[in-house]
Design a protein that fits this description.
195 residues; alpha+beta; 7 helices; 8 strands; globular
Length: 195
């Protein structure tokens, strides 16, 4: 069985379920922001916007550049892609390539942090008993994780992870991490962080 990985990224919009028109407008403003940030010239249809006619599923769109689907929730995005969760610990050219993707997407959205979650700990899993609760928020997701899994969410610690064996990291990674990207922002400030 494949366990997928999601990025959870904060935003300020809180009408994902209560105002369909405002949600659609917010999604298309986000698409425009991503197009500008990543210098994409594709038409809006390229992003495959979807909304559920019954209001049971959140609005979503695709970002093919990162093979990612963005799901709009109240005050956060769940960004799903086809990668397995352990790949957050995989390295390419000596660094964590999937983390760099999360960093790029978070920056494009104007954010400075993200959470990584396996599909078992992503939004839909915690919403099982609250699937139709339209008030589900990032704070609620964080509380659910902490309550169900005894405490704080571990920080993605790049410096210590780079000192550990990659295979051991991949086999023993946590189900959820928080990442403030502090080291990557410092690299950008020093002029050596752009890919």
């Amino acid at each position: 069985m494949t366990i997928r990985e999601s990025f959870i990224i904060r935003h300020e919009f809180v009408q994902a379920w209560t105002d369909k028109d405002a949600a659609r407008t917010f999604v298309f403003k986000t698409i425009e922001r991503l197009k500008e940030y990543f210098h994409l010239q594709e038409p809006d249809e390229y992003f495959e916007y979807e909304e559920d006619d019954y209001g049971d599923l959140p609005p979503s769109f695709e970002l093919p550049l990162y093979d990612a689907t963005f799901y709009l929730y109240n005050d956060f995005w769940e960004v799903q892609h086809g990668y397995r969760f352990w790949q957050i610990m995989s390295r390419c050219d000596g660094d964590f390539w999937l983390r760099r993707d999360a960093f790029d997407i978070a920056r494009a959205l104007g954010e400075k942090e993200a959470w990584y979650a396996s599909e078992y700990f992503a939004v839909a899993q915690f919403m099982d008993d609250e699937w139709y609760n339209k008030d589900f928020t990032l704070a609620r997701w964080l509380d659910c994780y902490k309550k169900h899994y005894d405490g704080a969410i571990p920080e993605f610690d790049r410096a210590s992870f780079l000192l550990r064996d990659e295979e051991e990291l991949c086999n023993n990674c946590q189900e959820v991490y928080h990442d403030d990207f502090k080291d990557l922002f410092e690299e950008l400030k020093a002029g050596r962080g752009e890919r």
